[in-house]
Amino acid sequence: MSWLATTWFVLFVVIVAGYVILDGFDLGVGMLSPFVARSDHDRRVLLNSIGPVWDGNEVWLVLAGGALFAAFPLVYAALFSGFYSAMMLVLLVLILRTVAIEFRSKRHSQRWRNTWDWFFFASSLGITLLLGVALGNVVRGVAIDEAGNMTVDLVELLNPYSLLIGITAVAMLCLHGAIFLTQKVEGELLAKVKRLIPRLGVTFFVLATAAVLATLQVDSEMVDTFRDRPWTVVFPIGALLSTLVAWRLVEATWYLAGFLASATTIALLLASVAAGLYPVMLPSSIDRAYDLTVHNAASADNTLQVMFVIALIGMPFVLLYTAGIYYFFRGKVEIDQDSY
Question: Which has the closest alpha carbon to 166: 211, 129, 199, 124?
């Protein structure tokens, strides 16, 4: 039942997109904080803009890992063994970001707060860069042998193409975070954020264009895929248009609509990568015959069927909970004694 494997591939991409969209604006706020907030009050406003939701957003990363483990165990095994050092670094910076958010306001010392502010910035940057580099290596291909074993070290992962994808991810999530902040801040802080958005948009566009051109050089099979399935070009074209729409909506002070357009950009970019790779999930740089695909890396049909039923029952509750949290904590940030 190949349709089940393909369905789970689509669901996995949707879950990953959910994580990048939701935790992405958290990371963007963290990376922007030293450049937007100058006073302690402003830094607290930024921190509390994500305060009610940041930990719930990270659950989507756990959900993505669980879905990959259950639906495509061979891909999970190859990624988490081959990218072991990188994954440990991701785990470290995730912990540092959590500690920075929770510890920051525990003392009134300015030095204490400044220290954790920089940890918040550095950990947000580190997570974004590392995950972007990981995506770049997936697109570029990694050393997978006939047995599905990956042999790669951290230095190899930090190749020019993957670093370009990582830097592009940083620009994308900074823009996403800035657009999110337009819904949460006001006054001079809002004016600063709105002045920053066009610069971030131009930076993201330039880097994304460079990333596309570089991808055409490093992965000729992805080019062939888009040529053989021309309908898939709707994803990158849609991503470009939604970026422009997001900017125009922010200019028109339709901030929520602008944020949704920014989220659409991220979803369509990830869909572009997924469509370009499909049916491959993890390409081999040794021999493309060793690629891990949707079909040869999937779990047994019975497993996929049971998981599909569970997903049909459980996902609506996850989406309802997520929507409820954002509804209850909508509006501008107000600082009180219980705030971060």
Answer: 129
pLDDT tens-place string over residues 203-240? 999 999 999 999 888 876 777 787 888 888 899 999 99
Instruction: Look at residue 60 in the predicted model and tell me its pLDDT.
Output: 92
Residue linked to tokens 């509804």: 327
Beta strand ranges found along the chain (DSSP E)? 280-282, 292-293
- Taking only the tens place, the pLDDT of each residue in 269-280 is 999 999 999 999
Q: At how many degrees (to 10) do helices 54-71 and 301-328 cross?
A: 170
The domains of the chain, with CATH numbers, are 2-328 (1.20.1630.10)
pLDDT band for position 156 (cuts 50, 70, 90): confident
Dihedral Cα 159, 225, 74, 265, nearest 10 deg: 70
* CA atoms within a 13 Å half-sphere pointing along the CA-CB vector of 291: 17
Q: Has this prediction a pTM greater than 0.70?
A: yes
Q: Is the peptide bond before 279 cis (omega within 30 degrees of 0)?
A: yes
Residues 6+ apart with CB under 8 A from 312: none
Query: Left if phi > 0, otherwise alpha if psi is -120 to 50, otherwise beta: which for 141?
Result: left
Q: Between the CA atoms of 326, 31, 132 and 19, what dihedral angle is there, to the nearest 10 degrees? A: -10
* Long-range pairs for 93-99: beta carbons < 8 A, 24 or more residues apart: 93/122, 93/123, 93/126, 93/127, 93/130, 94/58, 94/123, 94/127, 96/122, 96/123, 96/126, 97/30, 97/123, 97/124, 97/127, 98/55
**Phi, psi at 153, each rounded to 5°:** -115, 170
